[in-house]
Amino acid sequence: MRISSSVAVLAFAAALAGGAAAQAQTAQAQTAPAFDAARISEDIRVLSDDSFEGRGIATPAEQKVIDYLSRQYAAAGFAPGGENGGWTQAVGLNRFTVSNVSGQLKLGDWSQSLTQGQEVTMTTRLPSNGVDLKDAPLVFVGYGISAPERQWNDFKTDVRGKVIVVLVNDADFEDPSLNTFGGEAMTYYGRWTYKFEEAARQGAAGVLIVHETKPASYGWTTVANSWGVPQFDIVRADPSAERVAMEGWIQRDLAVDLFRRAGLDFEQEKIKARSRDFQPVELKGATLDARMDVKSERIVTHNVVAKLEGSTHPDETILYTGHWDHIGMGEPDANGDRIFNGAIDNASGTAALLEMSRQWSAGPRPERTIVMISFTGEESGLLGSEFYAANPLYPLEKTVGGFNIDSSAVFGRMNKLGVTGYGHSELDEPVIAAAAAQGRGFVGDAGAAAGIYFRSDHFPLAKKGVPMAYLSSTGEFVDAPIEPRLARAADYRANRYHQAADEWEADWDYSGMLQDLDVMFKVGQDLANSRTWPEWKSGSEFGPERAKSAARRR
After folding, report:
1. pLDDT tens string 90-99
2. Which end of the chain is more exposed for a tag (fewer CB within 10 A), N or C?
3. What is the pTM of this model?
4. Element containing residue 242 per DSSP (H, E)
C-alpha cells in the first residue's frame, strides 16, 4: 500500500516498533547481533593490502576480490546470489585510458601551458582514438544547469562546439536563502556528473569545472587522483549524444586569472550566476587547445552478490549494499606510494557486509530474502549500482528497501546517527528509533551541502523507486580521549580520502561502526519478518516511480 501522509508515516513506524516487533519477537531474541570488531578489522586489512593493488576494476586484483568475498560469504552461510547460480553479475563497461595529455589556454599574446593534474585534469568518456581540440572558444555558463521545473536555464546561448566553464555545486550553495534549488542541500544539478551530462545534451565540445574546495567538498588532490586514472562508463547506444569529447577541471586560481585577462571579475560573475536572469558570458578572445591519446576498450567487471533466501516470502528482498572497488594504482605520492588502498573507502563497508551476513546466518531464517551486493565501479560514477538498477537480479518492485554502507566509522562512538537523505522515505523513523535505543540522537542529511545523497550506491536504486537508507555515525565523539579522535578524523578528510594514505591501521576503534551496523540489522530484521512496505514520503521525487508498481506489493 502507498502511505504518504505524516499520520501514515507515524503509523508505519509504529507498526515496525509494535506489531512487527511482536511478530518477530522470538527471532529477535535469538538473533541479537554479536558483531565482531576483530573479524571486521581483518577483512579490512586483507582487502586493503598492497597485494590487492587498490582494488581497481577490471584489473587482476578484481578476481582476488571476487574470490575473497565469495569465500567469506559462503563461510558465513550465504548462497551465491548472482547470475547463473554464481556469485557475480557481469557489468559491461567501456574503459578509457588517456595518455600524452597536453593543453594550452590562449588569449591575445598570453598563453598558459596546462599540465595534467596540476593546473587542470582532462579526460574523456567518449570512445575514440584521441581528442584534439584546437582553438575552442570558452564561454562561462554559470552553474551549467538547465532545470525547466525551476524556471532555470544557464544555456541562453549556443554552446555547440565550445568549451563551457562552469561552477561546481548549485546556485544556493553560496546563499541558501535564495532557495532556488532547495537551500543548503545540494541537488543533483550540483554534481559533476550532471555538469558533464548536460554539456553533452547542449552540444558542447568540452567542460572545465572550476574547482573550489568548499562547494566541491574535497580538495584539488582528490580531483587529480580521481581523474588521473582510467575512467569508465556504461556501454551507450549513442555515446556522442551523452558524452562530450573533453571532461575536465581547472584550478580556481588559474580560472580567476583567465577571467581577469578576459576583462571579467570571477567573484562578480559568480554572484551573477546565482540568478535566473544570468546570461552566459563569452571569455572574449580566450581559447583552449586540448590533446590526448585515448585507448578505448570494452571490459567486463562484476558485482558480487550473495543471498539468504527467505522462509516465507523468498521473492521479497531486503538489500545491503556497498562498493568493493577503489581507485587502483595511480601516480606516486610524495612518499613514492602509488597504491590507493582504500581501507576506509570502502574496504570498511565491504567488511561490514561480510560481518552483517554472518549475523543474519547466525539466527533463524528471515521470512524475506536478504541480499548482499558488493558493487563495482562506484568510484567511476556509481556504475555497478547503476547497472544493477537497470538490470536487477531481484525485481525492484518486490525489493522492500535497503541499507547502503560506504566508509564506515573507525574512530570510535559518536553521539548521533547521520541519516543521509532524511525526509525522503519512511525508513527515517525506524532507524532514528533504533539509534535512540542506543542513547543517540540523529542528524538529518548531514552531508546535504556536499551532495552526499547523490554520491553513493543507494542513489541509482532510489531513482528506480527503492527506499534506501544511507547511515553513518556523526556528531561528537563520546569516549575519551576526544582530541586524538578528532585529529584522526580531520587527517583522514584532509590527507587520506582518495589518496594512497588511506591504509588500514591496527588500532582503529570500531565501536561506532558496530552501533551503526546494529541499527541496520535490527531495522532490517523487523522489515524481514513483517508485511510492511516502506514508501517514499509525500513530495519526494522518488515516489512516483515506486507508485508505478504498487499493485505488485501486498
Report:
1. 999 999 999 9
2. C
3. 0.80
4. helix 239-242
